[in-house]
Amino acid sequence: MNIEDIKKLRESTGAGMMDAKSALEEAKGNYDEAIKVLRKKGLAKAAKKADRNAAIGVIESYVHGGKIGVLVEVNCETDFVARTDDFKEFTRNVAMHIAAANPIYLNSDEIPEDELNKEMDIIKEEVKASGKPAEHAEKIIEGKLAKWYEEVCLNNQSFVKDPAQTIEELRQAIVAKLGENIVIARFSRMEVGSIG
Q1: What is residue 104's predicted lDDT score, i.e. its pLDDT?
Q2: Which pairs count as long-range contacts for 189-192, CB under 8 Å and 24+ apart, including other chains?
């Protein structure tokens, strides 16, 4: 482990110097493992801040080629954080992701019960038709449902700029970096010619 490794890790994750150094030490110099260490620590920091009120923020807009438009509200705890370049970059990235990935819901809690039941029925029929043993059916159903959440729920989707990370993991990383609770509150996506 050398100073260049620490610098590279800091630049790619936004972690502080000491955090990057300790993550590399914990990962025994393995860069990819150090990123995982930092993500886990970021998750812990984000969880501690989740209960704090995030009522300040911005509405970010993004228009792609005059055909797709997105509005997304992202909240934080203070005006100071809302004005930082890191927060602005996060909101822009989320808006661009929404334009590209076309999520329907923010998270699985927003899916109407009747739609969830309909999807569950489809999945159960697929599993039944596949002839898989009944003892494996429940795990297969859970896996297919998780895959569906990745398609329709913003927070479950893989970030288009870095598919190794979900939007929720991206949010947790910015929470850890900026030290405030940050919440994607809501979004709206419009595409020319697709009403409804």
Answers
A1: 95
A2: 189/68, 189/69, 189/70, 189/98, 189/99, 189/102, 189/103, 190/68, 190/69, 190/70, 191/67, 191/68, 191/69, 191/102, 192/66, 192/67, 192/68
